[in-house]
């Protein structure tokens, strides 16, 4: 007469633990990817708010287009931007002082909110090349003013990317003098 022994063998238990471990590792990887995507979406939102806010300031001060066109800021190359003579926060300023204050505020916001960020205002008739935004501008007196904002991302292991960032946002201000 045979007796049957019921239970699990050591091999079955090891296989079950392995499957459970793979599921946990997959879940953690998915969570990390979701956190990275949320962070990138937050940076994109901040860059969009910065660019649209600056565009509104430029539209309110159109005579100072030449002053705004001087904005080419890279937080890596210039970590602490120098403030202008007048900051115009709640004080009366002439149009030129207001434009310089706006440029300084944009630099400060990029420095505070975007990791190793960059912002450029230029005349550009061709924003896209090969399906991507690029920093170089086509120029030309009739080309619209464009605000380009970007930031350097990080590799999946958390180390910063060394190469120059691509613009993540480009807002067309329109034709200004």
Give the beta-strand count.
6
Strand order of the largest sheet: 1-2-5-6
> Poorly predicted ranges (pLDDT <50, ≥5 residues)?
none
Rg over C-alpha atoms, rounded to the nearest angstrom: 26 Å
Discrete helix count: 3
Find the structural class using helix and strand composition. Answer: alpha+beta
The arrangement of helices and strands along the chain is HHEHEEEEE
Characterise the protein shown here:
- By secondary structure, this protein is an alpha+beta fold.
- It has one domain (9-174).
- 42% of the residues lie in helices and 16% in strands.
- A 4-stranded antiparallel beta sheet has the order 1-2-5-6, covered by helices on one side. Strands 3-4 form a two-stranded antiparallel ribbon.
- A hairpin with a 2-residue loop joins strand 3 and strand 4.
- It is elongated.
- The N and C termini lie far apart (102 Å).
Give the topology:
Blueprint: H1 10-60, H2 65-68, E1 72-74, H3 95-113, E2 117-123, E3 128-129, E4 132-133, E5 145-151, E6 167-174
Antiparallel strand pairs: 1-2, 2-5, 3-4, 5-6
Helix pairs in contact: 1-3
Summarize, please.
Residues 29-103 form the Type IV pilin Tt1218-like domain. The chain crosses the membrane at residues 6-30. With 177 residues, the chain is of the alpha+beta class.
Summary keywords:
3 helices; 42% helix; two-stranded antiparallel sheet; elongated; 177 residues; alpha+beta
């Amino acid at each position: 007469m045979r007796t049957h022994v019921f239970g699990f063998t050591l091999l079955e238990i090891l296989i079950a633990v392995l499957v459970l471990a793979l599921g946990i590792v997959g879940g953690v990887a998915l969570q990390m990817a979701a956190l990275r995507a949320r962070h990138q979406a937050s940076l994109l939102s901040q860059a969009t708010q910065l660019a649209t806010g600056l565009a509104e300031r430029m539209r309110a001060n159109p005579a100072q287009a030449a002053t705004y066109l001087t904005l080419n800021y890279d937080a890596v190359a210039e970590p602490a931007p120098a403030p202008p003579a007048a900051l115009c926060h709640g004080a009366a300023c002439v149009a030129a002082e207001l434009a310089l204050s706006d440029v300084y505020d944009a630099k400060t916001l990029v420095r505070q909110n975007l990791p190793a960020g960059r912002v450029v205002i230029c005349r550009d008739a061709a924003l896209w090349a090969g399906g991507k935004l690029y920093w170089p501008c086509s120029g030309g007196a009739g080309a619209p003013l464009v605000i380009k904002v970007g930031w350097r991302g990080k590799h999946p292991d958390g180390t910063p990317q060394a190469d120059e960032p691509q613009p993540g946002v480009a807002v067309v201000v329109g034709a200004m003098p």
